[in-house]
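Bench notes, afternoon.
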Amino acid sequence: MKDWQETFWMNESGEHKITISQVLDLLKDEPIVNVKLEDLAHIHDLSLFDGRLAEADLSCPIIVTEKDGHYTGILDGHHRRRKALDQKRSFICAKILRICCIPVQFHWLAS
């Protein structure tokens, strides 16, 4: 995507949509934390080999969804995670989107 500000996610029915701006607003008071990359290993790698990997900025936190104490997905940052793994890093900086703490219409983000 050329303009990251156009990024959005939509539930399967198309009934609910959330934009990256809305997600960032939900996360504005959340701290940046270091997450073990091995704790994200079960999440499918959606990075593309299209040049974005080289440009991935590891100082920018990825956005990880968490439900019931378990990481359920990466909303933003697949290329950064791939780059961190390729560089043999153990941790990556992240903001955690706790599903329990967001409006119910967005709980589908954890699936």
